[in-house]
């Protein structure tokens, strides 16, 4: 490519200004000579090199003048190869019969020697240049071949991997691919230009596709990773028209047709800044990579608008030279060389049977940019739109997302991870700890039915029965404590149990209240539990409520136990009392009716220490019994009865208790089930051990 | 029994039968029964709190303004309003004041109660078991008493070591000493015995309730 | 400051109450006053919790969330209990009968269900927990007490047997005492942390 952008060539025949790269005059059609100007080597007629021509002409004229001048005749002939000619020159004798003076002869000889030397030098220089150029061209050839080989391999790989990808690069009736058609639909102006260019396209000569020395140098540097970013786009744009054309290395040929005029190139460059939006970390990661492996993003950016304008320029060149336009597919295929490297590096598989689609996406991206920063997400969005193009039988594989996107490896991995996460949303990905199996539910049902049937049979068949259980110390102590009450003493009965446990408690509590009533012992029934307002009628007279409802639960009991009425009036809690506000006034004993060991414990912790003189005993359920043993052992609890097992101590009649035969049946069934669990575990361990030994 | 009573009675019966549908799995019927239970319990609690606590203890004293008791009632009134504010704005700073006050009071009561009501008596009980009067009977050693005293001390210490051993096991990379492991094992025995007794007691209570329920069903069917 | 204020208030009020408890003979009326305030505030907090429950379920119904039918059932039961009880009075016998007819069978059935569930748990306990000192001692203790509750042993025939049985029946006392002391010590330490501002410092 010429380094003198604004330079035009004047036709020597008709004087018509022509483009630098043209081979024939656009007016007269004659061949334009001396297309190439090689830097540092100027022979013959070179445009713009008049100065050198003048110099040569002046040199010739001067030599001719010197030849004709008699004054400059040198009598002696000097040997230019001999450095000692000076001595010889001094000793030279003038030739006999020659009228030219010696010094003229010397000058002539010297001029001739110099001319010979110059010729020799020129020839040598030419040879050296030839060799260098040839060497460079060979290198460039090799690099070019390497590039083409890579492209072919990538193509083949893509074809092998994605045979099902439908070719969307369908060509319409005019021979234009679909992507081009879409571009034209988007940009009708450019379409007109393109058509003009294509209308004037003519056959191109081979020379049009040849490379200039500068271009080859650039390509070589690029291959070696020393390319300047600004010139990358030039080279990539240059690659495409050369693909289908045989390469001929003629160093003196002029620059081939530029796909992009320098002016266009300069205009395109500002539009391409921030074309990609690759994060800095990716760019930094790329910094550590060999340059030839780096994705040539900038080249990719540059070539996209360059492509469209390159297309225009190419068509114009074709029009000028009368050659057929290079197929756009080839151009874009080669121009996607950078993309291929990027894809290779990212490990994505692109379908090169659909270069049109990809270029289509790029081309679509280009007009939308309009010089603005190109968001990578936008590219991905467009590529996701491109996902609609593939056929329906495309397997939805979370392992290979975003196939049409130009993503780096890191980005691809992150995209894949995000897609995996989204794919798993709403699905259980970890094992549930305690997932109940149908087999477990069936077993529970069987056992439940078994127990219920056993109870039912026990209820229906035979009397209720009675059990002679050994009395326990705490029950005996309770009974003794109850018996120690004297007539006229006051007992505070505190209710705090739920409806679920009433069958376990109420027979015992009712018996105790009967004993109290029978011994003429006054009782005061209080509760802090709202449910006991309903249940009190089971113990007391029908529809009778507890004497007091204590607000605040244990705080209320504590307030009544620890505090004394102030002198400014009463405490708020006294306003909640219907009767006597002093709860513990003249109380001798407290009997707690509670299904919770915690309630009894809290009473013993909070209330009893403030009313140390009041004995405390409890009626509780069988489940609370073991936890109240320490309090009985320490003397805090005078005694307690727990469930139907202690009913005999209070001489509770069997008619007041549940069917004890059914109770016995239930106990026996639980024993069997417990033993069964142990036996199955032993059997399981045994079978597992034997399996292990068998292996 | 009026018709309304009959309706409510059958509603309760059907709801109780729905509870046993749990044997077939956590079903819709079981959910209906549970939510009904929760609703009724919550309604009863709210009614009792309003009528038995808030109205007499908070609202009524305000009517005796400007007596001391009514002035003092302003404090719980303000605190209660701050608690109500919790309904509307949970993250407000001022709603922490009444809850902090409540927490402080309960904490103080807990300190006094635990130390006086559980720790001191229980520890004294262990120590008092070694009282000479208990360890001898008519001048002769009361071996049962002695055995029980030592067993009690060793057992309680062993139970302590179970907790301590579990804590140490998590921290240390190397296994604990053998004597510690053995002592913790003894503690586990005692804990297992206690849990076994509690398990039987719980089953007994449940069994009694089940028997009573089935009995009531049989009686109901017998009535019909 | 925001999360610290409740902890500071708790520490200050707790220390004041502690002093009041220690000097109860002098501070008894004020102790009672503060405890009454605590009763009112705790009752109000419980009411707010119940109201929050109702509001939550109302929101479930409005939003049409999954299970909103359960919310409807709960709210119907709640408001009918509250309104009818407010209208008729808490001491109304018929109202209490209605509540009894609903609550007692359901709670009794629930307790009976516990017995059924415990049976299925007894089968699985060794399969799940395996063989260990705890599980073996648990099983043996349960078997002993179950057998004892059957009433097949004639305890009064042999005094030695009676003594042995009595001793074995008191065996849970050792474990229960150890557990109580351990839990008590833990609760005490936690309470002291709150009272002396350790929780404030932690925040």
Task: Describe this structure in a few short sentences.
The complex is a heterotrimer of chains A (695), B (224) and C (203). Chain A is mainly α and 695 residues long. Chain A has helices at 50-68, 85-91, 102-161, 178-186, 188-199, 213-223, 229-242, 262-271, 280-287, 297-321, 328-335, 337-346, 355-369, 376-386, 409-423, 438-460, 473-483, 502-518, 532-539, 554-562, 572-575, 597-607, 625-634, 660-694, and strands spanning 8-10, 17-19, 490-496, 522-527, 548-549, 589-594, 615-620, 640-642.
Can you give a write-up of this model?
The complex is a heterotrimer of chains A (695), B (224) and C (203). Residues 1-5, 35-52, 76-97, 165-169, 197-208, 227-308 and 320-399 of chain A have low confidence and may be disordered. Chain A folds into three domains: 8-146, no CATH class; 169-389 and 397-423, no CATH class; 473-658, Rossmann fold (3-Layer(aba) Sandwich), CATH 3.40.50. By secondary structure, chain A is mostly helical. Chain A has helices at 50-68, 85-91, 102-161, 178-186, 188-199, 213-223, 229-242, 262-271, 280-287, 297-321, 328-335, 337-346, 355-369, 376-386, 409-423, 438-460, 473-483, 502-518, 532-539, 554-562, 572-575, 597-607, 625-634, 660-694; strands spanning 8-10, 17-19, 490-496, 522-527, 548-549, 589-594, 615-620, 640-642. In chain A, the strands form two sheets. Chain A has a six-stranded parallel sheet with strand order 5-4-3-6-7-8, sandwiched between helices. Chain A has a two-stranded antiparallel ribbon with strand order 1-2. Chain A starts with 7 loop residues before the first strand and ends with a helix. Chain A has 24 helices and eight strands. Chain B has three domains: 1-63, no CATH class; 73-128, no CATH class; 132-224. Chain B contains eight helices and two strands, in the order ααααααββαα. Chain B has helices spanning 3-19, 28-62, 68-72, 74-88, 96-128, 132-135, 143-171, 178-223, and strands at residues 136-137, 140-141. Chain B has a two-stranded antiparallel sheet with strand order 1-2. The longest helix of chain B has 46 residues, at 178-223. Chain B starts with a helix and ends with a helix. With 203 residues, chain C is mainly alpha-helical. Among the domains of chain C are: 1-88, no CATH class; 92-124. Chain C has eight helices and no strands. Chain C has helices at 4-22, 24-63, 68-88, 93-129, 133-150, 159-170, 172-195, 198-202. In chain C, helix 1 (4-22) packs antiparallel against helix 2 (24-63) and helix 2 crosses helix 3 (68-88). The longest helix of chain C is centred in the first third of the chain and has 40 residues, at 24-63. The mean pLDDT of chain C is 89. Chains in contact: A-B, A-C, B-C. The interface between B and C is large, with 111 and 117 residues.
